[in-house]
Input
Amino acid sequence: MKKKLWLWNLLSILLLAIGLVVWIMLPWYVVLGLAVLVGAWLLLTRPGRLSLAAARVGIASLPQRWGASSVIIVGIAGVVGVLVAMLAMGEGFQATLKGTGSEQTAIILRGGSQAETNSVITRDQLPLISTLAGVAKDAQGRAALSAELSQVVNLPVASTGEDANAQFRGVSDAAWGVRPQIRIIEGRKFNVGVREIVVGQGARNQYRGLEVGKTLRLGNQAWTVVGVFASGDAFDSEIWTDIETLASAYDRRAYQSVTIKLDGKDGFKQLKAALDADPRLKLDVQTTVDYYSKQSEGLAKLIKILGTVIGTIMAIGAVFGALNTMYAAVAGRAREIATMRAIGFRGLPVVMAVMLETMLLALLGGVLGGLIAWLVFNGYSVATLGSNFSQVVFQFKVSPDLLWTGLKWALGIGLVGGLFPALRAARLPITTALREV
Output
């Protein structure tokens, strides 16, 4: 008998877990459809109207049980707040990198390279690349491309003073035309052949000593900050200088990447075909939007997994809190529930009444947690390591989709936390309950 009961409980928990996973994955229109069906049942059927009547009695008594009820609200708010904040971090990082690229530009790397850090493009390959089909021309008829170097340097973080990695990029003068979204917002551009740098607005805020006019030592040489630029993407986290000056300072004899402005909507296809047809160029090409999207995938997935795991652990705690609270509520209202049963309320309306009460508390907790996450974290700037082992400054992005996900988690917790107490209320013997004080 005990073994059967244990197996039944295990099966119930397993089915609930599967149901919760399915519930969290449901799109909004399916959830809306289910809500409409439940609403119609409550309003148009006799058991539904009895459920509403019983639920009103329980909800009316919430102020007398506010201390216990707040356990559910606060617990679920904590789960939703942490979950949404973690997912907002991943979404913000991914949005920053995805927004960095464009379908009108392409990046060339050494064949098989996944990022600039492990790519090498020799100097004699650059003239060959500039003649390929699909490469746009500038106003002077020159190939619109920028050969680039990426050097990781250490700079003190503004908040703590501890060293962190920053990306020091060497670019040609053509880089400004290839990336028209980048504009100088303070000072001026660097001069070619001089140890001058311009810094992204995110880097200026992230690191110390990057204000215009300041001098800093990089590669055992003094560099002067002459300007600040804004791009609204991952380049905001970088420091730029003339490529030949950077190559000389760090003894770099090859390039790492070439960023190209494509010639029309068929430019990428033409460029890829031309690269594949030239045996001298064992290089890979991607649109920059594809390249930066791939760079964000790994970290975004890791953050999502961590957020889900942490949220699940907290959700288990919130479920137990809801179970304890609702079991206590059912025990405290035993005589009230038994009286309703005695005057004609059957088991289903009683179950639904307790479930509606729990779901209301869960809804309040979900809204509170989502609101806190949005007020505290939406637009909050942080930095993390990117694909080139340098800091990328980005903002948390609390989107409507994430808030909706948090709300579904809240309702799922309320569903599990209220189900067993509701079933207990429906099975409560009337005569026994009426004798309880």
User: Anything to note?
Assistant: The mean pLDDT is 83.
